[in-house]
Amino acid sequence: MAEPFPIEDLLLYWVYRVQTEGVAVLWRRFKGAGYDITPEQFGVLARLRVQQGMSQTQLGDRMLKDRHNMARILNLLEERGYIERRPDSTDRRIYRIYITRSGSSIQEQLVPIFIQHLNELLEGVLDRDQRAVRKMLERIVGNIQKCKRETC
After folding, report:
1. ∠ CA 5-9-10, rounded to 5°
2. Which CATH class is domain 7-121?
3. Torsion sign, CA atoms 136, 26, 112, 97
4. pTM
5. Nearest partner of 110 among 47, 45, 51, judged by Cα
6. Bridge partners of 87?
7. Which phi and psi (to 5°) does residue 85 adopt?
8. 3 vs 6, 69, 121, CA distance in Å?
9. DSSP H or E stretch at residue 20
10. Which of 18, 37, 15, 16 lies closest to 27, judged by CA?
11. 86-102 pLDDT tens trace
């Protein structure tokens, strides 16, 4: 049975492809530069450099990771000495996540690779076009959030 239309005609196919292939290329770049860190782990360290002391749940929400995946990423980062967990001062069931000096250092070393990666991916794409796509994707995310609230 033939497809009713080619999947390549779907916008969300291209969004998925950009994300999937972009992450794979970034991981190869990190490895090629001698770093044993995934783009996911880099993202967590980058987020923590901006906002220290989030709970695992808060961090997972911001990183769009479920509880299990977030715990796996944090465990690996903690084993490598890039983050530390500290008990919350008011609720001992909650641990706050902090980046260590070692974590900040590795994150800083990876930033130029990440920036070069972004520049190469966006080569030839005008700033105004980037802004328009972002605005469109934000609208789609808003529609998804609305659907989740209304249980579509």
Report:
1. 100
2. mainly alpha
3. positive
4. 0.87
5. 45
6. 95
7. -105, 135
8. 6, 34, 30
9. helix 11-32
10. 37
11. 999 898 889 999 999 99
